[in-house]
Design goal:
By secondary structure, this protein is of the alpha/beta class. It has seven helices and eleven strands. Strand 1, helix 1 and strand 2 form a beta-alpha-beta unit.
């Protein structure tokens, strides 16, 4: 086992955007991309890390894409549709992990016992303690709440050591790097700096929740084995907050 990837954190919440499940630049689900994530998750858990994964659903559907048509599809309905999309990704990831002989539990904030367990905090902790990968889908079960906030909430509830936000960008920038070639990537920020400068890390409710709990956040690109590197404490992405 690679000593360079020895875990720094015992219990981790990984917030995985829907783009992590889709083909590059396209919508839908890619089994190759999902298996790539599953292989990293398996290696992490084999090193003794307790891992819970909060999944997004943007590769399938974003609730806000319907918000402009409020007279036809209400904003609350659109958000529920987005939550159901996360459950599709959760089911895909669960089967991908189990094809690699990983023991998993899919837990949802929206009750649907025929396909998943309802999210119960104590039960989720017990699964983690038994070495199972816990997949958390359905957001918080409430409309008007982002999956970022759901991830921050679960990180606090499950007493994680760090919240990892895995995206398709390699950190937090001073400006949009696609538009501004001079945008600078931050290596480290405080929660207060993120709030004060309105930086695009997570929504402000999630940042504030992490600030109160003194919970660090690492924003990084999930490609090329970076999930393992992030959990090993390598210097990648942008770290928000202090770690003792």
């Amino acid at each position: 086992m690679d000593n360079d990837l020895e875990p720094k954190y015992a219990r981790v919440i990984l917030k995985l955007s829907g783009e992590g499940f889709g083909p590059a630049g396209k919508s839908g689900i890619s089994l190759d991309e999902t298996l790539s994530i599953a292989r990293q998750a398996k290696r992490v858990v084999e090193r003794g890390v307790q891992l819970a994964i909060v999944v997004g659903g943007g590769n399938i559907l974003r609730g806000r894409q319907f918000s402009a048509g409020g007279e036809v599809i209400k904003a609350a309905t659109a958000d529920y549709m987005g939550m159901l999309a996360t459950i599709l990704n959760g089911l895909t990831l669960q089967d991908a992990l189990e094809s690699l002989q990983c023991e998993t539990r899919l837990m949802t904030a929206i009750r649907m016992e025929s396909v998943a367990e309802p999210y119960i905090r104590r039960r989720a902790i017990r699964h983690l303690e038994k070495g199972r990968i816990v997949i958390l889908a359905g957001g918080t079960g409430n409309p008007f709440v982002t999956t970022d906030t759901a991830a921050a909430l679960r990180a606090r509830e499950l007493e994680a050591n760090i919240l990892l936000k895995a995206t398709n960008v390699d950190g937090v920038y001073s400006d949009d790097p696609v538009i501004n070639p001079h945008a600078v990537r931050y290596e480290k920020l405080t929660h207060d700096q993120v709030i004060r400068n309105n930086l695009r890390v997570m929504d402000m409710a999630a940042i504030d929740m992490c600030k109160v709990a003194r919970l660090p956040i690492l924003v990084f690109n999930f490609k090329d084995g970076n999930i393992e590197r992030a959990i090993a404490g390598h210097t990648i992405g942008t770290l928000v907050g202090e770690i003792a």
